[in-house]
Amino acid sequence: ADVIRWLYAGQNPLANINFGYGPAGEVKRRMLTLWNLYAFFVTYARLDGFDPSKPPVPLAERADLDRWVLSRLQSLVDVMTHAMDGFLVHRGVRVAQDFIEDVSNWYVRRGRRRYWKADADMAKLAAYQTLYEVLTTLVQLLAPVMPFWTEDIYQNLVRAVDPEASVSVHLTEWPDAQEDRRAPELDTAMASVQQVVRAGRAARNASNVKLRQPLRTAVVVAPEGKTRMAVDTHISHVLEELNVKSIEWA
Fold it and tell me: What is the pTM of this model?
């Protein structure tokens, strides 16, 4: 039922909708990305005995990935709120899909080693607290469109650990964007880093050079300015994602 609801909710009512097993299967794949994020979190949180009631790690002490995804989350809250208020649900659904893909394919993949660490240090706690906040806020935002899956996730992530919480995700207050969690400069910088990584992967594919083959250098063509500063600041992401030893600017 949630697959069909998500399919319709993501469709602009001014355009014809492609309906059938193909489009429904694509929607299911996108929904499974969210479910896999949830399953990933639950698996490691149980192993480490994560307690969401612990005092939060200060935002300034969290990794750039944590601050970036929380900033992106505030932007999603704004978009979903305006989409619902304006009866343009499809706009919110499409932005939510992009956000979920970013969380899965960038935030979790780039930071998954923190969950695997044997030591329960502040970095690991910050990673758990950040992903927990992302997931619990996401289910509130998606509940009107995906009522059954979000309820299932909410009951396990929230009600199971806090009996005083609302008995249903559909009875919770709609989230408000938190201004103190916004980091527009970090958002722009990480977008530049992701753009360079996408270009590097495309170059590898065009040359038929597999990602697992290490390369000495990646030559990045970009004018001097914010893009170079962003990549230099977050260069570890680029080097590891492209499997190169160094970056050269041109």
Answer: 0.93
pLDDT in tens, 149-186: 999 999 999 999 998 999 999 999 999 999 999 999 99
Phi, psi for residue 246 in degrees, rounded to 5 = -155, 165
DSSP 168-226: SGGGSPPP---GGG--HHHHHHHHHHHHHHHHHHHHHHHHT--TTS-EEEEEE---TTH
H helices of 57-183, where? Answer: 64-85, 89-102, 109-116, 122-142, 147-154
Phi, psi of 216 (to 5 degrees): -70, -45
Token representation of residue 44: 């490691």
Query: Please, which residues have CB within 8 angstroms of residue 114's CB and are 6 or more apart in sequence?
Result: 63, 123, 124, 127
Tokens of 203: 């170059």
From residue 108, alpha-carbon distances to 37, 145, 182, 250 in Å are 8, 24, 19, 31
